[in-house]
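To assess whether the prediction recovers the assembly geometry, we first specified each molecular entity separately, as shown.
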Amino acid sequence: MFEVVAQGEGPLFMDPDADKAREFFRKKNRSLVNKLMTVKEAVSKFVHDGDYLGIGGFGANRIPTAICHEIVRQGKKNMAFAGHTSTHDFQILAAGEVFNRCDIAYIIGLEARGLSPNARRYMESGKVECCEWTNYAMALRLKAAAMGVSFIPGRNIMGTDTFKHSAVKVVKCPFTGKLYALYPALWPDVAAIHVHEADIYGNCRIRGISIADLELARAAKHLIITCERLVHNEEIRSNPSATAIPYYLVDAVCEVPYGSYPGNMPYEYFSDEEHLKLWLETEKDPEEFKKFLDKYIYNTKDFNEYLELCGGIERINELRAQEKLIELNGRE
Amino acid sequence: MADYNTMEMMIVAAARNLEDGATVGVGTGAPCAASMLAQKTHAPNLVIMFEAGGISPLLPTMPISVGDSRTFYKAVMASGMCDIMETCQRGMVDYTFLGGAQIDMYGNLNSTVIGEWRKPKVRFPGSGGANDFASFCWRIMVITPQDARRFVEKVSFITSPGYLDGPGAREKAGLPANTGPYKVITNMAVMGYDEETKRMRVESIHHGYTFEQVQENTGFELLKAPDLSETKPPTEEELHILRTEVDPNRYIIGR
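The predicted structure of the complete assembly is given in tokenized form:
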């Protein structure tokens, strides 16, 4: 038996029992079927009020923006959110007040761009129950879930207030007697990840850094994929070492070109810093922000309409040039 | 003496602490500028790592995010969060640069809340990868303005571990042995930590400032290093590279 020498006071939002997770995954469909659907269908089918949600990517890099918008548009409520490596995704979900429980590793901020005034108001309102973690801690919790075990050790977090407000248990290593932080496994009810290429069954390719998405894809009970473009299954099979996510983890595939906008998509387009600044600026005035959300999310029927409002293909082409470090004539 | 601003002084002072062949876990902003400057001056083999997975990129421009595509431009590997943090946990990452809203005399950092955690006056982003880097990397460096509201007797919340409450506290809590705060670089001085007490001490003061001024802008009593000196000002070469190659758009040095 491990001796628990210290433990955090934070709430555990999800059951870390590996056998219960196994019972779920035992029944998960493994058949090779066409999973293509619209973002609207995917969200209404696989995202429910009260669900625990995970979002892939890194805040404003390779994020499934269309899914975040649709969750807000469909008015999902009382969800729990895995708030690690989250920036613009958090900003969108906080704008819709879709969650009331949050595992926190990084929230509210948009890195060097500043803090989101609206997300900050929401987190300071007392409406959200919180538990503190770190980015690696959350990646480890997903890794434990992906491994099918109920906890995983790490040597971080101990001795801090982050630990005190987490749900970590510190134990003595049975081999060395040294102290380790144990992280409980996290199986989100549903996750969404944006990838470069997918086939209709859900086999996915990611280019560039994977962040914590390989773990998230394997930990999530339901997984929605949005992709820049669909490829044929033959293409996937021509180079299996490029596959990052195998189809049997995936429940829905949505083709959403420029789907990480206004975030960066590696090798495709850079982030739209002007539009992200507009979000941050508008949020300062709650009334203005309400109108902004109506315009950009609630009154748009889908992600294409949002892209059009933001400058459409012309703007995208500028961002494509930025990503590829091409100087357009007279522009940066 | 060359003409320079305080941000340039801070970046140059930080860069000089990174030796050739070392590994460093960095964020965006001044730390990234310092690492790029070191790489383009005395440390061409400096290995820069970003928490989201970028390993040893040839940074073409200043990244906006620690996960944007610049962080793995012409990199040796585009990896992931676990791989980066586990490389730190294995003991292969020498330095990290961190920041925060508050720092105390033991180098503990707060980036979570001001006020009570349950009813915060101000909510900040939280740890991100900072607690992980601060737990695992051998030496922690901080670049921050010298300000009594930042350098406080007691931080509202210890987000990332410094020396906690003094000598031996990190090891006692379970953190890897022989790790901890190393330098704090401000607009006025470079500080380190006293070996015995693990308390912050002033090691060199930038040209134009006095120890008294540094102390006045600090909310706790600072120790003085026995060989307290004046910080070597930036050289023409350092400034030239910083202004033309590292940050030509003055994103950081123009702040």
